[in-house]
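worker-3 :: picked Proteasome subunit beta
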Amino acid sequence: MALFDAEDRFHKTRHESLAPNPTLGSHLDAMVPNWMREEVSTGTSIMAVEFNGGVVIGADSRTTTGAYIANRVTDKLTRITDNIYCCRSGSAADTQAIADIVAYHLNFYEMETGEPAGVRVGANIFREMCYNYRDSLSAGIICAGWDRRAGGQVFTIPLGGMLVRQPVAIGGSGSSYVYGYVDSNYKPGMNEEQTIQFVTNTLSLAISRDGSSGGVIRIGIITKDGIKRKVITGDDIPKFFEG
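worker-3 :: tokens ->
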């Protein structure tokens, strides 16, 4: 029963947070700026790519509330287990809650089985959560990681709860600007350094065109040894022609 308590609490909290507050008068509502009424969104450009030996995940760091930039240095690469991470896009509250619940489930799974959870197991729990609550969630997830059965794996779970494994996945509002670049520059069998550069260039292009993406570029390299993280800031972000 404990496994379902977290989902029940999430579902109740979600609806309670959306319910009107009867204690607030209309005069107070009139004083609240329009941008404060918007849900906090990660906006986002996120990406994950398989390579020989693991996966590289990456994301920008801008969080918005309407047109207002609420946070310039958000971490959208969220730990689920030591070898499984997710990239979050959509509502910040929804994606954080889902990631917490999946981590909770996998913690129980690992205690019961006595072995690390596989990436596909984590991805399927994401899929179940996103599908079951598809009418009330705004969440696009990329689940990526490494396990001893299948090595590096990337799974994408878009709005609605579909689950697809892909060698390269992009998501968020900035992804629509870089599909052509990804299609023309992705090459199967890239090594770690080539994959890091590919992810960095893609996110740089997305940030330069998408108003909801920005800040720094966060990169994670997940292999059998765990995760290595790096942050690309300021002048280190690749520059491209902006006509």
